[in-house]
C-alpha cells in the first residue's frame, strides 16, 4: 500500500489509542481475546455463520429457518466472545458454554416443531412457555454483554407494561395480556423477537458487515485514508479536508461512527495538531466526520436498512433519499474547515508520499469498484442482498490484482470470521428491539403515544416535530442508534404522519435524530473517543462536535416543516417539479453556510456580535422560512410570503460588508 508519512514527529501515543479503543468497546462490547483451541472453535463457528449467510443471499432459505439460524449463530458467538463480567475476560467459562448450548437447543426445538409449533402461538403449551422464558432471559443477557444493561432494562419495562395494562391510568391503560399469551407472541410468532428487526439483521445488515470485512482485510480502509491525504495534502487547510474526505470514503463501508473517528483520528490528528488546530476543535471535527459514517450512502447505519423494511420500499430508495442530506452535511463540514483554516491561522504541513495520485489510482483504485457496484447492481434490478453478495465476491476477486491486498486463505478466514463477529452488536440489539416492537403492536401503544404527543402539541406540526426530536434524542442517549430508531419509529412516527407528514419523511427525521446520539452526552462516544486521541476535554469536544454537526440537527426539520422540504429527500413536492428540488437544495445549502459562519464566528474575518446575529437570522430565513414566516407576520402585521429571499439578500449584504472591511 502507499506509505504516506508526515515529515515531522507526532504519532498518537499507545495510551491515547487504548483510551479511544475503550469507547469502541462501549459501543460494540468488550470482547474476549481468545487463542489456541478456544480461538479456533470461535473462528470456525463465525466462518460457518458467514458462509451460511452468503448461501442464504444467493439461494432461497425459508424465512423462519433463516431468522432462527441467524439468531442462533449470534447468541452462541455472543456467549463465547463476550464475558459475563470484566474479570472473566479472555477465556471461555463453563457457564458461557451452557448458555450457548441452551440457545441452540431451544432454537432447534422451535425449528423441529415446524408449523405445529407456530400454530400454538396464541395458546402455547407448558414447554413452549418454559423454553420461551429461558430464551428471552438468554437473549437479554447476550444483549447486556454486547451493548450494556440499558437496552435489556428497556425491553423488560415494555414486558411489564404488557402485563400490567389494566391497572395503569388512562391513556396508558390497555386490556392486558397473560404471561402465557405474551411469551407466545414474543417467542413463537414472527411479530416479536423474530420480527422485522431480526429479518433485516439476518439479511441486509450482516451482508453489508461481511462486505465491509472483505474491504477491510483487502486494505481498502488504508487506501481510502492514504488517498485522502494525497488528494488534500500540501495546503494549509489540508488537515481538515483530509478528515472530511476520508470519513466519507471510510465511513460508507464501516457504518460505525466511533470506529471511523478512531481510525481517522489516529492518522490525521498529528497533522491537524501541527497545522494549528485547537485540541477540542480537532476532536469535534473528527467526531463529526465519524457521524458522517452513519449518514453516508451506500451503507449508512444499520437503522437505514430498517427504514426500507418498515416502509416496504427498496433499500435503493433509502439511498436515494439520503444523497442530498449527505451532500449538504459534507459541504457544511468542508465550509467549516475552510473557516477553521482562517480562524486558527492553519499552517501548511508537508507530507511525503511514494506514489502520485494517478499511480495510486492505477494500483489501488479497484477498491472503489465494488462500492459503485453495490449501487450498480441495485439499479440493474438486483435485490439489496444479491447486490451486496455480488459486490462482496467482486471485492474478493479484485483483491488479487495486487499481491499485498490479495485475500489468500489466512486473510480470507479472518474476513469471513469478522463478517459475522462485526454484526453481533447490531443483531442482539435488533432481537431485543423485537420484544419492544412486539409489545407495541400487541398493546396498540404506538397509537396511544401519538395521541398523547398530539394532545400536548395542540396538533401543531412544529411542536410535534420538536417533541418527537426530543423523544428520539433522549431515547438515543440510552440505547444504540438502531434500537432508538426502532423504538421511536413504532411509537413516535404515527404522530407526524397523522399531521400529514409523508411516512418516508417522518422515518428519515427519526433516523437522523437517532444518529445524533453519537455526539450527545452522556453517551457521546464519538467525541469522547476523539478527545482521548487529541488530549482535549471530552465535554468541550462534544460542544465542538455539535457545532460541526449543525446541518444534521437542522436539515431533518426541513423535511417536515417546509412544504418543499421533501425535495431534500429527492421526492418531487406536491404540485412541484424537479426545479423545486434544486431550489430547496440550493436555498438550504446557502442557509447552512450562513449558520456555519455564525457558529464559527468567522466569515471573511472575525464577526462582530451584530454580524453574528445577522448571519444567524439569514441562515434561519433560508433554512426555515416556514418557521419564521408566521412569526414575522404576527410581529409586523403584514404578509411576508417569501422570507427566504430576505435571507439571501442579508447573506449578500453581510458578505459584501465583511469583504469591504476585512
From TrEMBL:
Give residue ranges for domain TRAP C4-dicarboxylate transport system permease DctM subunit.
135-556
Against Pfam families, the record matches this protein to: DctM
Q: Which residues form a coiled coil?
A: none
Q: Where in the cell is it found?
A: Cell inner membrane
Q: What is its main location?
A: membrane
Topology relative to the lipid bilayer, per the entry, is: Multi-pass membrane protein
GO terms (molecular function) for this protein are: transmembrane transporter activity
Give the keywords, sorted.
Answer: Cell inner membrane, Cell membrane, Membrane, Transmembrane, Transmembrane helix, Transport
Q: Which residues cross the membrane?
A: 40-61, 67-85, 97-114, 126-142, 149-168, 188-214, 281-306, 318-337, 368-401, 482-501, 550-572, 578-598, 610-628, 640-659
Q: Which InterPro entries does the entry link to?
A: DctM (IPR010656), TRAP_DctM-Dct_fused (IPR011853)
Q: Name one GO cellular component term.
A: plasma membrane
Tell me, what does this protein do in biology? Part of the tripartite ATP-independent periplasmic (TRAP) transport system.
> Do you know which NCBIfam families this protein is assigned to?
TRAP_fused (TIGR02123)
- Stated name of the protein: C4-dicarboxylate ABC transporter permease
This chain's source organism reads Rhodoplanes roseus
Output the lineage of the source organism.
Bacteria, Pseudomonadati, Pseudomonadota, Alphaproteobacteria, Hyphomicrobiales
Amino acid at each position: 500500500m502507499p506509505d504516506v508519512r508526515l515529515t515531522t514527529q507526532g504519532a498518537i501515543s499507545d495510551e491515547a489509542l487504548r483510551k479511544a479503543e475503550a469507547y469502541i468497546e462501549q459501543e460494540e462490547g468488550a470482547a474476549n481475546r481468545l487463542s489456541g483451541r478456544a480461538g479456533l472453535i470461535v473462528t470456525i463457528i463465525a466462518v460457518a455463520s458467514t458462509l451460511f449467510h452468503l448461501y442464504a443471499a444467493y439461494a432461497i432459505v425459508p424465512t423462519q429457518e433463516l431468522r432462527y439460524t441467524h439468531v442462533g449463530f449470534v447468541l452462541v458467538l455472543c456467549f463465547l466472545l463476550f464475558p459475563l463480567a470484566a474479570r472473566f475476560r479472555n477465556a471461555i467459562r463453563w457457564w458461557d458454554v451452557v448458555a450457548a448450548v441452551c440457545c441452540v437447543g431451544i432454537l432447534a426445538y422451535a425449528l423441529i416443531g415446524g408449523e405445529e409449533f407456530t400454530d400454538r402461538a396464541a395458546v402455547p403449551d407448558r414447554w413452549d412457555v418454559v423454553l420461551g422464558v429461558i430464551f428471552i432471559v438468554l437473549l437479554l443477557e447476550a444483549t447486556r454483554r454486547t451493548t450494556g444493561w440499558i437496552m435489556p432494562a428497556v425491553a423488560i419495562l415494555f414486558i411489564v407494561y404488557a402485563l400490567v395494562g389494566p391497572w395503569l391510568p388512562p391513556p396508558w391503560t390497555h386490556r392486558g395480556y397473560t404471561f402465557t399469551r405474551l411469551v407466545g407472541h414474543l417467542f413463537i410468532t414472527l411479530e416479536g423477537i423474530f420480527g422485522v428487526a431480526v429479518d433485516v439483521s439476518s439479511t441486509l445488515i450482516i451482508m453489508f458487515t461481511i462486505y465491509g470485512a472483505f474491504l477491510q482485510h483487502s486494505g481498502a480502509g488504508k487506501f481510502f485514508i492514504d488517498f485522502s491525504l494525497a488528494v488534500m495534502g500540501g495546503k494549509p487547510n489540508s488537515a481538515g479536508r483530509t478528515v472530511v474526505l476520508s470519513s466519507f470514503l471510510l465511513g460508507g463501508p464501516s457504518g460505525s461512527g466511533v470506529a471511523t473517528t478512531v481510525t481517522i483520528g489516529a492518522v490525521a490528528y498529528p497533522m491537524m495538531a501541527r497545522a494549528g488546530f485547537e485540541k477540542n476543535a480537532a476532536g469535534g471535527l473528527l467526531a463529526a466526520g465519524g457521524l458522517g459514517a452513519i449518514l453516508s450512502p451506500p451503507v449508512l447505519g444499520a437503522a437505514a436498512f430498517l427504514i426500507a423494511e418498515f416502509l416496504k420500499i427498496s433499500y435503493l430508495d433509502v439511498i436515494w433519499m439520503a444523497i442530498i442530506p449527505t451532500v449538504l452535511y459534507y459541504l457544511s463540514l468542508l465550509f467549516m474547515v475552510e473557516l477553521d483554516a482562517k480562524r486558527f491561522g492553519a499552517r501548511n504541513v508537508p507530507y511525503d508520499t511514494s506514489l502520485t495520485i494517478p499511480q495510486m489510482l492505477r494500483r489501488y483504485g479497484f477498491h472503489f469498484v465494488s462500492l459503485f457496484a453495490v449501487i450498480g447492481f441495485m439499479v440493474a434490478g438486483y435485490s439489496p442482498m444479491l447486490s451486496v453478495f455480488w459486490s462482496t465476491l467482486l471485492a474478493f476477486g479484485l483483491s488479487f490484482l495486487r499481491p499485498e491486498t490479495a485475500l489468500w486463505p489466512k486473510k480470507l478466514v479472518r474476513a469471513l470470521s469478522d463478517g459475522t463477529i462485526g454484526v453481533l452488536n447490531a443483531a442482539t440489539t435488533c432481537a431485543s428491539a423485537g420484544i419492544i416492537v412486539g409489545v407495541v403492536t400487541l398493546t396498540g401503544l404506538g397509537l396511544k403515544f401519538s395521541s398523547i404527543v398530539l394532545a400536548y402539541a395542540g396538533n401543531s406540526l412544529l411542536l410535534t416535530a420538536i417533541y418527537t426530536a426530543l423523544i428520539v434524542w433522549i431515547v438515543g442517549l440510552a440505547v444504540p442508534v438502531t434500537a432508538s430508531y426502532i423504538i421511536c419509529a413504532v411509537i413516535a412516527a404515527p404522530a407526524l404522519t397523522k399531521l400529514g407528514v409523508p411516512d418516508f419523511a417522518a422515518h428519515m427525521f427519526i433516523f437522523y435524530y437517532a444518529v445524533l446520539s453519537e455526539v450527545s452526552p452522556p453517551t457521546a462516544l464519538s467525541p469522547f473517543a476523539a478527545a482521548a486521541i487529541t488530549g482535549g476535554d471530552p465535554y468541550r469536544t462534544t460542544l465542538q462536535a455539535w457545532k460541526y454537526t449543525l446541518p444534521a440537527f437542522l436539515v431533518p426539520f426541513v423535511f417536515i416543516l417546509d412544504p418543499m422540504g421533501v425535495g431534500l429527500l429527492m421526492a418531487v413536492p406536491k404540485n412541484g417539479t424537479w426545479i423545486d428540488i434544486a431550489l430547496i437544495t440550493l436555498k438550504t445549502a446557502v442557509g447552512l453556510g450562513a449558520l456555519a459562519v455564525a457558529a464559527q464566528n468567522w466569515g471573511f474575518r472575525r464577526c462582530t456580535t451584530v454580524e453574528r446575529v445577522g448571519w444567524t437570522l439569514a441562515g434561519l430565513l433560508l433554512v426555515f422560512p416556514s418557521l419564521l414566516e408566521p412569526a414575522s407576520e404576527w410581529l409586523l402585521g403584514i404578509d411576508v410570503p417569501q422570507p427566504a429571499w430576505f435571507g439571501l439578500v442579508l447573506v449578500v449584504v453581510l458578505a459584501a460588508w465583511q469583504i469591504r472591511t476585512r
